[in-house]
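[audit] Reproducing an earlier prediction to check determinism. Same input, same settings, fresh worker. If the tokens differ from the archived copy the diff job will pick it up downstream; this log only records the rerun itself.
[audit] input (135 residues):
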Amino acid sequence: MIRKYPFTLALVAVIWVLCLMPIPENPLSHVSMIDKWTHLVMYGTLCLVLWCEFTHHGTGRALSIGRWLPLWLLPVVMSGIIELVQRYCTGGMRSGEWLDFAANSLGASLVQPIGYLYYIWYSRHRRNKHGIEKR
């Protein structure tokens, strides 16, 4: 798993650290909904990287719902777990919010069509490059 998904696992570790450390005051703290935009981008990036690594190790096989669903579900479940950990295990340093979970889920969801299209494009490109005919 570490060999197939090194960037995804690194991003997962970074997300966990960022989500459990106290948020310092910064100039962007006063921007409306900056926290939600950050969550959306963070989980969108995670899913995009996951799709890319999945694509590079899984092309050549049909993309069934059983293979696609974890690419969305695992980040969303991780997001929910992080929100619960923030709420109940950080001693008030962080607060788990439903809107954060919604932003995380939206970020993961918005990337799914992009990841799927990339998977299709890369599969065709690889097939053409290696002279593999579709049967």
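[audit] rerun output stored. Observation attached for the diff report: The chain has four helices and no strands.
[audit] end
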